[in-house]
Design a protein that fits this description.
Elements lengths: L1 H26 L23 H4 L7 E8 L2 E5 L2 H9 L1 H4 L8 H6 L6 E8 L2 E5 L2 H9 L1 H15 L5
Antiparallel strand pairs: 1-2, 3-4
Length: 159
């Protein structure tokens, strides 16, 4: 009886540790469960994905100019940008669901900072921070190829 209690207690402890570890990693953005990286503001932190191409800069979107696509709310700085995105989301949406492109090249997902970005061959890539972006830039071609291979297997499920 005592051994059974110990085993049950140990199993429960391991389960709680596993759940706790999962929740901690999820809070870091490692497991998101979303096909698109979004926070309370919206997809890619509420930034306008069209502005990276049209204006060459990261521009916060406005709530009145929004569009829901791929299970996430996307914000735009203008009605024109919203309409351009709605007509061709694949053209403007960041690669790898807006998760950190460097992380995807390493085989996991991580949050991205929408102000840390690059456009390569007409594709938008976001990264976690400036330090990661420097590593990304130094090995960009290989990182993109590796991330493209990794993404289909690791892509978080949509809603």
């Amino acid at each position: 009886m005592r051994l059974r209690r110990i085993l049950i207690g140990s199993s429960l402890l391991l389960m709680l540790m596993s759940v706790g570890g999962f929740l901690y990693l999820k809070s870091l953005g490692v497991f998101s469960g979303q096909a698109v990286y979004a926070d309370a503001t919206g997809a890619i932190g509420g930034y306008d994905p069209v502005a990276y191409f049209a204006q060459g800069q990261a521009v916060p979107g406005e709530p009145q100019f929004h569009h829901v696509w791929n299970g996430a709310k996307w914000l735009f700085s203008s009605a024109e940008n919203r309409d351009a995105f709605a007509a061709d989301p694949a053209k403007y949406a960041p690669q790898f669901g807006g998760y950190c492109a460097y992380a995807v090249s390493e085989g996991y997902t991580a949050n991205s900072d929408p102000t840390v970005w690059s456009v390569v061959d007409d594709r938008l890539y976001l990264n976690y921070n400036e330090a990661v972006a420097e590593q990304w830039s130094a090995e960009q071609v290989v990182r993109i190829q590796t991330a493209q291979k990794n993404w289909p297997e690791m892509r978080p499920a949509g809603p």
